[in-house]
Amino acid sequence: MYRNKKIVVVMPAFNAALTLPKTYQEILEQGIVDQIILVDDRSRDETVAVAKTLPGVEVHVHEVNKGYGGNQKTCYRLALEAGADIVVMIHPDYQYTPKLIPAMVSIIANGLHPCVLGSRILGGYALKGGMPLWKYISNRVLTLSENLLLGAKLSEYHTGYRAFSREILEKLELAGNSDDFVFDNQMLAQILWHGFTIAEVSCPTKYFPEASSINFRRSLQYGVGCLWTGLRFRLARMGLWQCPLFPAKPLVTASNPR
Predict the structure, then answer these.
(1) Interacting residues of 96 by C-beta distance below 8 A, sequence separation 6+
(2) In sequence order, which residues have a C-beta less than 8 Å from that of residue 14 and are 6 or more positions away?
(3) Mind giving me the DSSP string for 161-196?
(4) What DSSP element (H or E) covers 128?
(5) Per-residue burial over 91-121, b = 16 or more CB atoms within 10 Å of its CB, e = otherwise
(6) Distance between CA 185 and CA 229 in Å, rounded?
(7) Is 88 helix (H, G, I), strand (E, B) or coil?
(8) Which residues pair with 127 in a beta bridge?
(9) CA 97, CA 245: separation in Å to the nearest integer?
(10) What is the DSSP letter of 246?
(11) How far apart are CA 5 and CA 85, in angstroms?
């Protein structure tokens, strides 16, 4: 608990058996997490078996692989059903440090911002942590394009470390979003569409063989999806096209201080 708010950590898992114990232990060390929910998307390794040995972890297993976005949909639904006031989503591959959970939670719990991202770009941690140069360049180009299309000032849109208030998760229509990786981008665009603000904290990151990553082809597909999301947002904001992602004009224009 933090300021009488229930804190739930969700982990969308896929082939994370080797890194899950370290992630779990560091989550516990923060001392404010009330519940941990892991959703396995039909891993091919021992992720489920390992997760079931970790005290206090609520394990859910998809009957079929639903994709990264589909996994998150299950994570957020279960967190809300569990009575979460603040939900922190972190990958169990130990690429992001759980040590930032208290900082991210405090920003939301104190009413400063309802969404917080752990940014690999702020502080210059991406390349220092081993992010491939082509991924870094792609990240910067995509982020610039999305800031222009969405009217925001985020340092990146592609982090797998996020915290949300209950209000945001109840407001967004996530079911209609993609089940693939572009879900992440669609969700942030929807948050901005509804006028919520987004904060960022500088997050060290690590790239190593066990950390999850998508190949060049999937990255290219993801990039095109991000730009398409941004274009639809811009057209909807201009009143030229309405779509399920952005069904009605927002009442206010979001600003996004870092």
Answers:
(1) 90, 118, 159, 160, 161, 203, 205
(2) 40, 41, 42, 43, 47, 68, 71, 212
(3) EEEEEHHHHHHS-GGGS-SSTTHHHHHHHHHHHTT-
(4) helix 125-128
(5) bbbbbbbbebbbbbbbbbbeeebbbbbbbbb
(6) 8
(7) strand
(8) none
(9) 31
(10) B
(11) 5
**For strand 115-119 and strand 161-165, is the pairing parallel, antiparallel, or unpaired?**
antiparallel
Beta strands in the chain (DSSP E): 7-13, 35-40, 57-61, 86-90, 115-119, 161-165, 198-202
- The DSSP call for residue 47 is H
In degrees, to the nearest 5, what angle opens at C-alpha 87 toward C-alphas 179 and 99?
A: 110
Question: What does the pLDDT read at residue 131?
Answer: 82
Verdict on whether the full-model pTM lies above 0.85 = yes
Q: Compute the chain's Rg from CA coordinates.
A: 17
Residue 254 structure tokens: 């979001």
Question: How far is Cα 40 from Cα 31, in angstroms, rounded to an integer?
Answer: 24
Q: CA triplet 234, 245, 60: central angle to 5 degrees? A: 140
Distance CA 139, CA 142 (A): 5
Q: Domains of the chain, with CATH numbers?
A: 7-237 (3.90.550.10)
DSSP type of residue 122: G
Q: Name the DSSP letter for residue 253.
A: -
Report CA-CA distances (Å) from 36 to 10, 92, 104, 224.
6, 11, 16, 33
Can you say whether residue 18 is alpha, beta or left, with left for phi > 0 and alpha for psi between -120 and 50 degrees?
alpha
Give per-10-residue mean pLDDT for the chain (258 aa).
96 96 97 98 97 98 96 98 98 94 98 96 82 87 96 95 98 95 97 97 78 70 95 94 80 46
Q: What is the pLDDT of residue 15?
A: 95
